[in-house]
Amino acid sequence: MAMTDLRSAKWCADALQALGEPHRIQIIDLLRTGPKNVGEITKALKIPMVNASHHLKILRQAQLVLHTKDGRFVIYTLDPKFVIGKNGVTLDLGWCKVEIAG
């Protein structure tokens, strides 16, 4: 069996590091119910908008969430790497799968 190449290992490590903060896990869990804007995320998590924006930026950089512009709002959704199930979400990192309970 071939060893994981360095590029894939780095991407996996970056994704796991991005998930290594409780608010970011909460954001992923929140987005599994559908697209949300920063205001909706801020309200649901009861955190300042600047904090939510910071966490979303890290999740975007790790390619875990997608964003689209809708007028003056930015709408966030889970990247298709996430599979939404009835018991939570699974992040498919190839050889490594991460379960996030819902």
Description:
- 43% of the residues lie in helices and 27% in strands.
- The chain is built from 4 helices and 6 strands, in the order H-H-E-H-H-E-E-E-E-E.
- The N and C termini lie far apart (34 Å).
- Helix 3 crosses helix 4.
- The protein has a 3-stranded antiparallel sheet with strand order 1-3-2. A 3-stranded antiparallel sheet has the order 4-5-6, with helices on one face.
- The protein has one domain: Winged helix-like DNA-binding domain superfamily/Winged helix DNA-binding domain (Arc Repressor Mutant, subunit A, Orthogonal Bundle), CATH 1.10.10.
- It is globular.
- The protein is α+β, with helices and mostly antiparallel strands and 102 residues long.
Please give a quick description of this structure.
With 102 residues, the protein is α+β, with helices and mostly antiparallel strands.
Main pleated sheet: 3 strands, antiparallel
SSE order, one letter for each helix or strand? HHEHHEEEEE
Per DSSP, the total helix count is: 4
The CATH architecture is Orthogonal Bundle
Q: State the end-to-end distance.
A: 34 Å
User: Spans of 5+ residues with little confidence (pLDDT < 50)?
Assistant: none
Into which percentage range does the β-strand content fall?
25-35%
The name of the CATH topology is Arc Repressor Mutant, subunit A
Please estimate the helix content. Answer: 40-55%
